[in-house]
Amino acid sequence: MSTISRDEVARVAGLARIDLTSDELDRLAGELDVIVDAVARVGEVATPDVPATSHPLPMTNVFREDVPEPSLVVDEILAAAPAAEGGRFVVPQILEED
Amino acid sequence: MSATDLTRLTAADLAGRLAAGEVSSVEATQAHLDRIAAVDGAVHAFLHVDAEGALATARDVDARRAAGEDLHALAGVPIAVKDIVVTRGLPTTAGSRILEGWLPPYDATITTRLREAGLPILGKTNMDEFAMGSSTEHSAFGNTHNPWDLDRIPGGSGGGSAAAVAAYEAPLAIGTDTGGSIRQPGAVTGTVGVKPTYGGVSRYGLIALASSLDQAGPVTRTVLDSALLHEVIGGHDPRDSTSIPEPLPALVDAARRGASGDLTGVRVGVVTELGGEGYQAGVRARFEESLELLRGAGAEIVEVSCPHFTYALGAYYLILPSEASSNLAKFDGMRFGLRVEPTDGPATAERVMAATRGAGFGDEVKRRIILGTYALSAGYYDAYYGSAQKVRTLIQRDFAAAFAQADVLVSPTAPTTAFRLGEKLDDPLAMYLNDVATIPANLAGVPGMSVPNGLSDDGLPVGLQILAPAKADDRLYRVGAALETLLEKTWGAPLLSRAPELETA
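ok -> structure tokens follow
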């Protein structure tokens, strides 16, 4: 049913924000093809009359009382961050320069 | 009593001796730390050992006991925790380079409950990266070795927890099971593992793999020990919106009742689709023998068919990667864990994220994230993810029909015994087949247990899986304890006593 090309893997890896090496692209294209062929069998029984299930036990929205609870300790969180300054995360530039 | 002996006790037995004042928690904890020092070089069940923290908890429990305080039944009994459960101030990596060196700023609810009950945490156990795998070979930090044969896999993803318990490095451990990661390691290491009903144990503070499938549970050497631990960690947690807002059934009582070995009137269903072709001959033989024992104990054995189980593996490998690709999007190099800048071009947030994930994730994680992203992408969603969700409905219906005919269902836990390290590493699909019998329970949310039920022709342990309806986890413990009693009567000793003694360093 499927044929996942190397280009398709590269496109999806871009969507998933994962840099892949050329070797990884080659290998994944072959592997994913085999896996997707195997899992595509689900289509045989997934007829229109069968409803979808997203969650094992049906539950409706769960709320808690609107009362303040202690937050995590800011210093501990920032100590575990790649970069922090003045009580905030330091992140790379968000927009490309033109 | 010598230090070696303390590590051979069941948790229930050790707890009794602690309560009676025959041994202290410091002695018991030190004995396990010594055992870890002696054998973990060869087994590599632990990624991090916290001797200081464990002994501090032990000393505190001993002091409180001396002061006459009313303590939890398992207070002072040490435990190992899978490295996917966050522990404040204790390194937590989920087996991934991307979290190497991360110190969580909070405790999972499981961790909080263990601390409140006074269980010293010995350390964090090895696992497949983000719990993706069936052999623990996908850990970024080296293989764990099966104590029965160090050249073989301990199962996965929770191979570290199962090996720790099997090697007497800990009497108790915590695992998590998304498609079999507690039960399959239990089967291949000759230990007991329980995946509770979905929502039965809080997921707050578990590093999520697939949120609609993940469930934490006990890893132990006996059924009673699993029941005792399950009662510590289970029950409603307001911090997990999928937590069941009801008390747990009486699990320890069920295990004690089952230990009588009487199963009169219990209907045991054998699932046609979870056996036969593809299952090793020795695995099938032990299964048939166990059925005879159950029948002899008064159980009524019925054959049930769950025709859609043959589609479970396919549905699982669409749903799991889809959910994982979403859950793992948080590893973006911004707030925690690794950050890697691209080697050339502008270091924008988007490019840093891609470089970080390219460097920080292992092969299996990349494979599944890309598979999940593909299954969720425009044009494929209905055919893949949408169809998988429909199969999930069909599997739930199969379970409902089966449980109308039987109180519990049984099958072999895994199709084979432990295979050699490296044997299936280059064939993802062959690796995925290890979980063919355990996956349906996760898709339907029902509880499951693996109980050791003998050795295969190759001398390696085999497990029997018991499944019960949602919220009827007590049935697992009754039937599991009965089978354990009956089997040990025929063996004359627990199965683990037949494992080779490990060389001590």
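The domain at 6-44 of chain A is CATH 1.10.20 (Histone, subunit A).
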